[in-house]
Amino acid sequence: TSLTLTGGYNWAPSETASVDLMGGLRSWDIKATAEVPGLARADSNSSFVDPILAARWRQSLAPRWSSLVYADTGGFGVGSRSTWQLLGAVNYAAREDLHVSLGYRHLSVDYRDDGRRLDFSQSGPMLGVTWLFGKGRAAL
């Protein structure tokens, strides 16, 4: 399980595009089990937090429709050695404060601690729901 929280600066170079530069944290809680039935079983649990730097670009496509590209990198040896993520999505604004997204995401992490090593990547389709709140609601 991972949870990413970010905050940062928004710049709108035009009425239809915006760029966000952000910093934040990604929390990890990883549980892994390997088993050979009747012979052996091994369990490994790791929890850690990574600092991250991120950028997000949004582009309005049509009323209620927009595209999004998001990238982040982090770890820097604080929690993991490294982590990074890249995703692209198309968004539909069901309401001003509620967006539904469909896209593709790749997420990678390299974590080592006390002889344990977690080095994995995962890629695949993404379905998301975003709730916007406060004064800074995105108009895209």
Automatic annotation (TrEMBL):
It comes from the Bacteria. InterPro entries: OMP/PagP_B-barrel (IPR011250). This is Uncharacterized protein. It comes from Stenotrophomonas nitritireducens.
